[in-house]
Amino acid sequence: MRLHLALRAAWIGWQTLLVLLPVAAVAHRAAQEGLGGVTGALADPIAKAALGLSVGLGFVCAAVHAVLGTALAWALVRWDFVGRVWLQALIDLPLAVPTLVAGLLVVALTGPATPLGRGLEAAGLPVSFAVPGVVLALLFVTLPNVVRTVKPVLEGLDPAEEEAAILLGASDARVLRSVVLPPLVPAIGAGCAQVFGRCVAEFGAVAAVSGNIPGKTLTASVWVLGEVEAGDLVAASVVSLVLLAAAVLMHGLSLRLSRWAGARRG
Amino acid sequence: MLWFLLFACGGGAPNEGGPAPLTLTLAGYTTPREAYAELLPRFAERWKAEHGQELRFETSWQASGAQSRAVAGGFEADVVALSLAPDVDRLVEAGLVAPTWASAPHGGMVTTSLVVVAVRPGNPRGIQDWPDLAAPGLEVLTPNVRTSGGAMWNVAGVVGAGLRGRAGVNAGDEAGAEALLAGVLRNVKVMDKGARESLVNFEKGVGDAAITYENEVLVARAAGRPMDYVVPPSTIVIENPVAVVDGYVDRRGTRAAAEALVAWLHTDEAQAVYARHGLRPVQASLIPSDWPRPEDAFRVADFGGWPALTQRLFADGALYDRALAQAQGR
């Protein structure tokens, strides 16, 4: 028993060190110039625009995957079709691909050297080196998140409930609204929180496709790199902390929702 | 580091009573990598002939600023070849390079180049000078000044031309130079992390023009990639330093070879190799006669050296920040 407790304490201590030490180091750096350094870094219009863009990208991608990811998970669980396993593998692909590749893919598909890219540009809707391209790259990178949180919950639900609702005369929309979605909501929320955190923190996929124009397409994570390279570690640390806080917040939310989803299932 | 030690020891096999082989570590920025692939074996041959000692090279290539920070942080290079003087000055501040490095011949510089404008074959947009880059609807590439030494040269080229009374700006008209830069920045479509990435994007078909170095264009053209370049009438001469890292060579017992290498890099023979790789020799007489000569080629020294120029252009809220804000209508 005592050994067990000691092991547990050591484990928790190790985890805490692993996370808290680097965070403390960043916080220490951020606080180096006092409150003035912090407010100064956050008052920078380019930093503010970058943070705004990153948070906005996080919300947009989370919203898209709330619908797309849930639909994909539903199709994977409820429909039996040839190649289902392959579709699942395809959805998990972004986990195995360096995220930089996601950015390069979008450029390869919609860059100015491609007919599609030239057409989009002529239509006044540039994708590569503009915000839509960043959204596409991020949607690719975060594709598995919602699918992976929703699918297990969906598998635990009894299709008989849906069938009963249909037999009782409920419309498809009514079945979706009243029977399918309610138990899924926490899982969808958890997946979306993960998507948000990932988008806010993502670097590789973004840097390749965004164009990185300060105030327009420069995201917070890429901005941080610029400050590090330019030697302004205080500003870089302050914005890093904001990103970190957002990620922690979203991750906590995700855990909470997952737990709630689990409890409702059980 | 351990790997390096193993390598150095592994090389210590006895060779017919001659002195033990010596390993020199060169830390460079990426641009002249191909030139050094040719230069270093030649120097090793010469060293062997003169001293009977085998000379081996360990090389590391990355962006100039990152390389400089690595050496300052403990990467024990014997010789550094960097993109711009401030990256050597960082090593002076770290106590690794003697402050006298810049009093070597040619001010410690080993090659030069020019800030030029890469354009599509045949120059379809008719770009001749810096103000042409501000034409409405034109798309320009230049890297981010925060991450790229090359971008700082580019901005210094545009602004410097203006401050010298060229490019449609009156001499010394700071606001005019700022407006010129703002016009160019307004057209910048992609700000890459470094000069190489920027030109690679240009090769992929992004943009109408890319502000870059002459040698980058010459290397790309030698590799068969179609592009032309325009040398604006007034542009800045890029000057790339080499230096012996005093703080490391004495400990490693490599000073004699490191100093001999740096001296040899200034010989006509070595300078001709640089020229074959698109870099301009520091001796003007060795620059190939068919390379363009801008009317007004100015240098960082014309603006009082790097510290003064950095302060004037790149300090917080200085000319670059103001031009960027102006470009974005802030």
Question: What is the gist of this entry?
Answer:
With 266 residues, chain A is mainly α. Chain A contains 13 helices and no strands.
Highlighted features:
heterodimer; A: 266 residues; mainly alpha; 0% strand; B: 330 residues; alpha/beta; 13 helices; 41% helix; 17% strand; disordered N terminus
Structural features, described:
- The complex is a heterodimer of chains A (266) and B (330).
- Chain A has 266 residues and is mainly α.
- Chain A contains 13 helices and no strands.
- Chain A has helices at 2-30, 34-43, 45-78, 84-96, 99-110, 115-122, 131-141, 143-156, 159-167, 172-201, 204-209, 220-230, 233-265.
- In chain A, α3 (45-78) runs parallel beside α8 (143-156) and α8 (143-156) packs antiparallel against α10.
- The two termini of chain A are 29 Å apart.
- By secondary structure, chain B is of the alpha/beta class.
- In chain B, 41% of the residues lie in helices and 17% in strands.
- Chain B has 13 helices and 11 strands.
- The longest helix of chain B is centred in the first third of the chain and has 19 residues, at 33-51.
- The interface between A and B is medium-sized, with 21 and 20 residues.
Structural class of chain A: mainly alpha
Assembly classification: heterodimer
Compressed to H and E, one letter per element, the order of chain A equals HHHHHHHHHHHHH
N-end to C-end Cα span of chain B: 48 Å
Shape descriptor of chain B: globular
Indicate the overall shape of chain A. Answer: globular
Q: Could you give the order of the helices and strands of chain B?
A: HEHEHEHEEHHEHEHEEHHHEEHH
Q: How much β-strand is present in the residues of chain B?
A: 15-25%
- Overall mean pLDDT score of chain A? 87
Number of helices of chain B: 13
Strand content of chain A: under 5%
Bin the helical content of chain B. Answer: 40-55%
Characterize the main sheet of chain A. none
